[in-house]
Amino acid sequence: MAEPALKTGEIFDEGLDKGIAKLTPEKIEQVVSSVLANETGARLRVYTDTCVHCGLCSEACHFYLSNDNNPAFSPAGKVKQTLWEILKKKGRVSPEFIKHAAEIAYTECNLCRRCSMYCPFGIDIAYLMLVIRRICHKLGVTPQYIQTTAHSHAATLNQMWVKDDEWIDTLMWQEEEAQDEISDLRIPLEKEGADVFYSVIGPEPKFRAQLIYQAAVIMNGAGVDWTMPATPGWDNSDMCMYTGDNEVMGRLKRAHFEAAMRLKVKRIVMGECGHAFRSVYDMGNRWLTWKMPPIPVIHALEFYHDIFKEGKIKIARKYDQPVTLHDPCNVVRGRGLHEMSRYVVNQTCEKLIEMEPNREHNFCCSAGGGVINCGPPFKNKRVEGNRTKAEQLFVAKAKGAKTVIAPCHNCHGGLEDIIHHYGLNMELKFLGDIIYECMEK
Amino acid sequence: MHDSGKWDWETGKKEVSDIGKWMEEFEWIEEPYVSPDGEKVASVVRTGDEMEFTACVNGTAWENTFDKVWYLRFTPDNRLTGLVSDMGEWTVAVDDQVWENRFEFVWNSMFGKDGRNIAIAAQKERKYLAAVNDTAWEHGFENMTNLTVSPDGERTAGVIQTVGFGETEFLKFQEGCYSVAVDGKAWGRNFVNVWELAFSPDNRHVAAEVRTNLYDYTIAVDGIPWKEMFASVWKPQFSPQDESVTAPVKIGGSWTLAQDGKPIWGKKFIQVWHHMYSPDGKKLAAVVAPEFGRWTIAVDYNAWELTFGDLVTDAVFSPDGNSVACVGKEDDKWMVAVNGTAWDGKFDMAWQPVFSPDSIRVAAKVEKNGLYTILADGQPLGKESEAAWDPVFSPDGKKLLIRSIREGKYFREVIPLT
Ligand code: SF4
Ligand code: SF4
Predict the structure, then answer these.
(1) Which residue segment(s) compose the domain that A278 sits in?
(2) Where are the domains of chain B?
(3) What is the pLDDT of residues A23-66, one digit of tens each?
(4) In a domain, A32, yes or no
(5) Which alpha helices (H) appear in B71-175, and where do they start and end?
(6) Alpha carbons B392 and A348: distance in angstroms, whole number
(7) Most buried by CB count within 10 Å: which residue of A113, A151, A375, B68?
(8) Rg over CA atoms, chain A
(9) How far apart are CA B55 and CA B53, in angstroms?
(10) pLDDT in the model for residue A7
(11) β-strand pairing of B53-57 with B392-393
(12) Which residues contact B119 (CB under 8 A, 6 or more apart)?
C-alpha cells in the first residue's frame, strides 16, 4: 500500500479549532487510554491486528477514487493517519494531530461500510472511524455544525430545535392542508392502541412538511390504523450517534421507543431516512441493551413494499419519466431492502434504469455518516470527494434516466449538491413523492 | 387516586351509549375515551359541514363548538377535558366550560392524582409557560419542556431555557442555558441540559436529571446538584419515607441505583431504569437488564429469574408493596408477569396490570387479533370486545369494573369475582 500523500488547504472550523485550543497532551492521553480501555475490546484489536495493508479496500471508497486515487483518502489510509498512529504512540499525540484525525473521521468517511465488503478480512473501517469520533467527542473536538445539531438533540430530543408546540402545530397544519384534497383525512395524534406509530426526522416538520402530508395521504389510502405522538420522541434521527455522544444517542432512542411503547402500537414505521434506521435498528437500541428494537421498526421502503404487495394502494398512472434509483447504504448494506425498493419502483414507474454498480455495491452519496451535517466548511470536499457518484449518475442519464429516486434524507441532500455541482440537471425525488403523485386517491 | 368508593358497584351490565348511532348525527367521530368510573364515553365529533368540532358525551354534544378540539382526556374525578381553539386562540374546555385564559397553543394536559387540578403547557407571544386551573405562570420562558405536576396537582414544574443563543453558538450552549421553573420561578442555576423531573410525594421538592457539561451527568434537587458525577443518569424519584432521592446512574459499563449521590445497588446490571418505590417507601424495584438483550424486574437488587428478550415495561407495585407486576415481550408476543411468573397467555398487546386494593388480585387488559379481553389473575373474564379500557377493582377488591365496546355499543359492567 502506498504512503498516504499529504493533503493541501487547511479548513477553518470553529468547533475543531476552538476544541483543540483547550487541549493538552496529558488530556489527550488520558481520554485516549480511557476510551480504548473502557469502551473498546477484542473487536478493535482484531481489526487493527489483522489488517495487512494490502490496499484492496481502496478502490471501494468514493473519496479515494474521486481524489485521483490519493492514498490519504483510502480506507486503510484513514486508519493509518488516525487510529494506528494513536495506538502506536499510546495516545501521546498533539492537539494538531487530533484536529487532523477529527477532520478525517468526521468529514472524509461516510461510515458507509462499502470498503468492508472488499476487505478480505471484512475489517469494519466505519467502526474504527467511530472510535476516533468517540475520542474526539470526549476531547471536545467536533465540527461546529454537527455539534450544534447534537445540542439540539440534547435540548429538544429532535434535530432541528423544533419546540413541542411547533411539532404539533405542524401536524395539524399538514392535516388541514391535506383535508383540502381528501376531506376525511386525519393525522391521528396520540391515538393509543393504533397499529402503526409513524416517526420522521427533525428536518421534516422544519423544511419538508409536505412529506408528512404525503405520508398521511399514503397511510390514509392504504387504510392503515396509525398515529403520531404529540410529545418528544417523534424524531427518529440521531446526529449524536455520529458525533460520538453515545449517551445522548441512547437518550434519543429511549425517548423514541418509549413514545411508541406508551402509545401501545404494534410497530414503528419510519420515513425515508437511512441514518435514523441505523440508529434505531443497530446502534442506539444496542447502546441501551435492546438487542433488537423493542418495538419492530419498519423502514419506509419495506412499508411501501408491503402495502403494494397487499394491494392496499392502487396506481392511477405510472410515473412516465425514466428513473434511476439510489441505494442508501444504511438500509441496503445495513438491512438489504434493495429488492423491496425496486419492487416499489417497478410498481410505480414506467422505466427503471439501473446505476452501476448498484444494490449492496452502491456508492454512497457522500452525505451520510454525518458528513453533510458538518456543514459549509466541508461542502466542497464532500462534493468533490464524490465525483464517482456524479459519473454513475451521468451514465444513467446518458441511458435516459431523467429522475433520481433517493429514498433517504441525507442521500437527498448529498445528491442534490452533486447534481448541482456537476451540472447533471436531473430531477430528485423521494419514493414517497412518486407514490403520492401516482396513487389513486 | 380516584375515589372509587362513591361509584356504582351494584348495577351489573349497563349499556351506556350506542356509539354506532352517533354516526346518524355526526359525520366525523374520532376514537372514544371513557371516564374512570365508566359512566361516560366521549369522542371528538364534527357537528356540521362548517368544520365545527366539539366533544360528544354519551351521545350528546357539548353546547360549545370550536374550530378544533384535540387531546380529549378524562380527569381522575371523571370530568372531560379537551384542548380547544377558536379564531386561532387556544384554551381548555372542561365539561363544556371554557377557561378564560387564551394562548397561542396548549398541549400536554395533566392532572393531580385526585383530578381536582388540571395543568397544561402553553405558549403565548412566543413565551412558554404552564397553567393550572386557568391560572397561568406569571412569566413565560424562551422554551419549556417536560411539564410535570405535583401529586396533588397544585404545582407545576418544567425544564426551561433561561439564556437565548443562536443555533450555531455552540460555546454559549455549553456554558449552560437551561434550568427548571417551579410554579414559574426559575431555580437560579443553569445546566447544559435538564431532562426529566420528579416532584416529592409531599409536593414540596423537585429533582431533575441534569448534565453539567457535555460529559458529566447527575441529579439536581431543588437546583442543587449532587457532588457525584456519572456517565449518564435516568429519572430520579423521591423516597416516600424521607427526603432522599434515588436515580439510576451509569458507572463504567454498568448501571446501578444511587441514593443522594451514593450507589446503593451493586454493578450486576447493564441497564436500570423506571425505578419505583413501594407505597410505604421500604422497597425499590426497577426494570433491569441482567445481561445484554435480556430484561426483567429487580426488587431491592434481586432480579427475577424470568427474563424477556424484547422488553419489560409497565411495572407496578401492589399497594402492600409485597408484589410487583409488569408487562414483558418475547419474540414479539406480549405477556403479563407477576412476582417473576408469567401468566399463560401470549398476546398481540398487553397493558399495565392493576392490583386490587387488598393486593391479592391482579387484572390486566390484553389484545389478540384485534379483540380485547380482561384477564383476572390470568383468566379471561367476560367476553372479548372491540375496545376496552383498563379494569378497575372495587374498594373491597371483590368486584371488577369492565369498560368495553361490543357491536358498537359502549357497556359498563361490574362483575363479582369469585
Ligand atoms: S467512506 Fe465508506 S468506503 Fe470510504 S472509508 Fe468510509 S466506510 Fe469505507
Ligand atoms: S482494511 Fe482490509 S483491504 Fe484494507 S488494507 Fe487492511 S486488510 Fe487490506
Answers:
(1) 153-309
(2) 306-418
(3) 999 999 999 999 999 999 899 999 999 999 999 999 999 999 99
(4) yes
(5) 170-175
(6) 50
(7) A151
(8) 22
(9) 7
(10) 58
(11) unpaired
(12) B109, B110, B111, B112, B130, B131, B132, B147, B149, B153, B156
B148 within 8 A of B126, measured Cβ to Cβ: no
User: Which 8-state DSSP code applies to residue B176?
Assistant: -
As for the ipTM of the complex, it is 0.98
Out of A123, A124, A125, A127, mutate this one to test ligand 2's pocket (max ligand atoms within 8 Å of CB): namely A123
Residue B27 is predicted with a pLDDT of 85
How many domains does chain A fold into? 3
A75-129 pLDDT, tens digit per residue, is: 999 999 999 999 999 999 999 999 999 999 999 999 999 999 999 999 999 999 9
**CA B83 – CA B101 distance, rounded (Å):** 12
Cβ-based contacts of B310 with chain A (< 8 Å)? 290, 292, 294
Confidence class for position A1, pLDDT limits 50, 70, 90: very low
Q: Is A131 in the pocket of ligand 1 (CB under 6 A)?
A: no
What pLDDT, in 10s, does the model give residues A5-15?
A: 445 457 899 99
Give the pLDDT of residue B7. Answer: 97
Rounded CA-CA distance B36/A262 in Å is 19
Ligand 2 contact via A56 beta carbon (within 6 Å): yes
Q: How confident is the model at residue B167 (pLDDT cuts 50, 70, 90)?
A: confident
Do A74 and A185 lie in a common domain?
Answer: no
Verify that A160 and A298 share a domain, yes or no. yes
CATH class as words, domain B306-418: mainly beta
> Is the CB–ligand 2 distance for residue A52 below 6 Å?
yes
pLDDT level of residue B47 (50, 70, 90 thresholds): confident
A212 assigned to some structural domain? yes
A153 with A256: CB under 8 angstroms? no
Does residue A314 lie in a domain region?
A: no
What the block records as the C-alpha cell of A382 is: 464532500
Residue of A nearest to B175 (CA): A151
Q: How confident is the model at residue B3 (pLDDT cuts 50, 70, 90)?
A: confident
Residues A297 and A159 in one domain: yes
Do A363 and A423 belong together in one domain?
yes
A window 19-38, beta carbon within 8 A of B: 38
Look at residue B79 in the predicted model and tell me its pLDDT: 98
Choose the final residue of a domain: A142, A172, A207.
A142
Ligand 2, pocket-test mutation among A119, A124, A127, A129, most atoms within 8 A of CB: A119
Residues A64 and A31: their CA atoms lie apart, in Å, by 30
How confident is the model over B378-391, as a mean pLDDT?
A: 96
Q: Does A189 touch chain B (CB under 8 A)?
A: yes
Question: Which residues on chain A are in Cβ contact (under 8 Å) with B351?
Answer: 264
Q: Is-contact A249 A243, C-beta < 8 A?
A: no
Specify the pLDDT at position A9. Answer: 59
Does one domain contain both A227 and A340? no
The 3-state DSSP class for residue A259 equals helix
Distance CA A164, CA A146 (A): 22
Q: Which ligand is nearest to the CA of A2?
A: 2
User: Quick check: A182 contacting B, CB < 8 Å?
Assistant: no
Inspect the interface and report whether the beta carbons of B71 and A193 lie closer than 8 Å: no
Instruction: Confirm or reject: Cβ of A126 under 6 Å from ligand 2.
Output: no
Asked if the Cβ–Cβ distance from B145 to A164 is below 8 Å, we say: yes
Task: Compute the nearest-CA separation of A10 from chain B (Å).
Answer: 21
- Mean pLDDT for B180-197 is 98
Q: What is the mean pLDDT of chain A?
A: 96
Peptide bond into A357 cis (omega under 30): yes
Nearest atom in ligand 1 to the alpha carbon of residue A75 is 5
User: Do A184 and A259 reside in the same domain of the chain?
Assistant: yes
Residue A28 lies in a domain: yes
Q: Which residues of B touch A264 (CB under 8 A)?
A: 349, 351
CB B314 within 8 A of CB B326: yes
Instruction: State whether A162 and A305 are in the same domain.
Output: yes
The pTM of this model reads: 0.97
